[in-house]
Amino acid sequence: MSLAISPADIRAWSMMGTRGTFGMALQRLAAENPDIVALTADLALTSGLDRFSTAYPERFFNVGIAEQNLIGVAAGMASQQTIPFATTFANFAALRSCEQVRHYLGYLQENVKVVGLASGFAMGMFGVTHYGIEDIATLRSISGLAILSPADATATAQLTEVAANLNGPVYLRLTGGMRAPVVYREPATFIPGKANILQQGEHVAIVATGSMVAVALGAAKDLAEQGKHVAVIDMHTLKPLDTETLAAFQHFNWLVTVEEHSTIGGLGSAVAEWRSFQAHGPRVLPVGIGQYYGHAGDYQWMLEQHGLTPSHVSRKIQDTCYE
Questions:
Q1: Per the confidence metrics, is the pTM higher than 0.90?
Q2: What angle do CA 156, 162, 165 make, to 5 degrees?
């Protein structure tokens, strides 16, 4: 499979956001690969799969609001050599279905692609019950499960193709809302387990994932206006972690991780775990969601409240890394 992406696609997809882009990309991939099937827990429209379900009704399965069954049915299909993409909200995939993910994807290594929709605060006013802010921490501990986290709509389309081509279980974590910032203005190279260095710098490197890559680039721009030039890394694969790229920045003073996820168990923890085995190297500053469940609000308000905007991140880097 080879996914053709035009400038018009990138403009349209950025308006749709990652969920709509995922559905469009999967439909294109399904046209080339008859083994691809799509499943959802009553979230066809939210998953961007409405067009897929119309184009391929015999390859689309709605199991209803039954997320544990979703994973079990997808695993059964995978055992019969199909490539199932199973979609539900990220917190339901990681928490409600954790046992099924562990047994079928971890233990049995079935070739299921679980798509975690609306990770982070993307569900806005739905509140804490629908926020996916512990999914990386939960799923990173499951053996043999790759975790992909696209930075924007372009990356979502390309990493959907990467997931389809990987022979093994994958968790595809979709963050952000509609009218998503564009990080990749043209198709890029996405190799599982190999981060993309978006800009070079000195002394400080920001390691970001998902929706926070655009935030990291904005923070880097703010810092550059103050004469401080930081590197920015898109860690699109959270597992396996690209420790080779991290090692290339071992002479820096700081690695700042930025994620729309709890500061416990996610990207920051993964980088800190790697750093703990190094005799020398940079300090790690984790930027993410703290240990409390606050009030619900719209998406941008939630990012503001938790310090996950370019101005908040640049200020934290300024105050901590340039004392």
A1: yes
A2: 145
Pair 45, 92: CB distance under 8 Å: no
CB atoms inside a 10 Å sphere around CB 296? 17
Which residue ranges does the chain devote to CATH 3.40.50.920? Answer: 196-321
Q: d(Cα 121, Cα 38) in Å, to the nearest integer?
A: 25
Give, in degrees to the nearest 5, the angle at Cα 192 between 188 and 198. Answer: 40
**Which residue's entry shows tokens 């972690």?**
241
CA distance 318 to 315: 5
Q: Are strands 83-89 and 60-62 parallel, antiparallel or unpaired?
A: unpaired
Question: Which structure tokens are listed for 155?
Answer: 């990356």
- 63 contact partners, CB below 8 Å, separation of at least 6: 39, 40, 41, 42, 69, 70, 73
Residues 44-64 have pLDDT tens digits of 988 999 999 999 999 999 999
Architecture of the 7-175 domain: 3-Layer(aba) Sandwich (3.40)
pLDDT value at 1 more than 60? no
Give the DSSP letter string of 55-74: H-GGGEEE--S-HHHHHHHH
Average pLDDT, the chain: 96
CATH number of 196-321: 3.40.50.920
Report the alpha-carbon distance of residue 275 to residue 233 in Å, rounded.
Answer: 16
In the chain, ranges of CATH 3.40.50.970 domains: 7-175
Q: Using the CB atoms, write b or e for 88-112: b if 16+ within 10 Å.
A: bbbbbbbbbbbebbbebbbeebbbb
Q: Tell me which amino acid residue 253 is.
A: N
Reported as a single tens digit per residue, the pLDDT across 142-172 is 999 999 999 999 999 999 999 999 999 999 9
E strands in the chain: 36-40, 60-62, 83-89, 113-119, 146-148, 170-175, 196-199, 204-208, 231-234, 237-239, 254-262, 283-289
pLDDT tens per residue across span 251-282: 999 999 999 999 999 999 999 999 999 999 99
The Cα 15–Cα 186 span in angstroms is: 16
